[in-house]
Amino acid sequence: MKILPYQPDQSNLAYSVGVTLDRFIKLKQSDFPFASGELSQLLRDIALAAKIVNRETNRAGLANIGGAFGQTNIQGEEQQKLDVIANIRFMRALSKGGEVCAIVSEEEDAVIDLQNNSGKYVVAIDPLDGSSNIDVNISIGTIFSIYRRKTPIGSPITAEDIMQPGNQQVAAGYVLYGSSTMLVYTTGFGVNGFTYENSLGEFFLSHPDIQAPKNGTIYSINEGLEMEWSSGIKSYVFSCKEKRFQSRYIGSLVADFHRNLLKGGIYLYPATSKNPSGKLRLLYEANALAFLIEQAGGKASDGKQRILDIQPESLHQRTPLFIGSQNMVDDAEQMIQCFESEITAISH
Questions:
Q1: Comparing C-alpha atoms, which of 215, 140, 147 is closest to residue 175?
Q2: At which positions is Mg(2+) 1 bound (predicted)?
Q3: Residue among 291, 304, 308 nearest 340 (CA)
Q4: Which pTM value belongs to this model?
């Protein structure tokens, strides 16, 4: 019997499809000796739910699941039908996996206690960010944060498990549903992006070790709110225009963040006279993206301090957010603080 060693096919007849998300997670499992595989399984559960939401998103125009649901969430925002569907899909995936003890969702008023006292992790999630863009076929996304619980395994969850600052995250990421669907995540060892291949039903590594440019020429802000900005924000945006930077604002946080992560830029959602605490949520929007951007070499701030160092005080706490290329965020911070110092000096 003749035995030949395997030789990879070097012809162009069968191209390589790359590394699947599942295989990549297994390869990286050694980064978490304490996890015993639970964190890896949790990431797979999130990926599975993302595949289902991707399917629902793609058929939204055919299945009458676009448009408003007729109710508002805890934020006072009108829920879209896909908001509700996405929330259900992720809740089911996270509850059935067995790794999670509690979930914080944008679509739920209170913490969801899964009554799984053996679960090691708490997940904070925005199931469908930018859902108001569904009906006009603009990119939307999912944002998630994963924390290790603080209380002993086997005991009921407490506020200590939920109200953790972003610097305690063990993993975070987002899914972008657009011209292609991507899952981008970090476990504190760099940022990697995976693109969904519909015909195979798998996420494949497409953007290994993503590094955010230190500088950029894109600024993303809702300029319709200019009359509500502070003088520092107005001056920073004016300086961007003086430098002939490009204004790019989609109105979908994941999409705006993703573009700036890859190309360089800054996303700004400052405090306004109408929303003095900002509008974006700390636990399930700002913290996740702040963890990602720092792992990619960028920066995230509320204008005064690092986002990941903010101690949350309420479940749906809001925060201003300045996030993206490090030098651009530094410049924005300095200008904001300079104007605040001048105002303080004048008032005294």
A1: 140
A2: 106, 126, 128
A3: 304
A4: 0.89
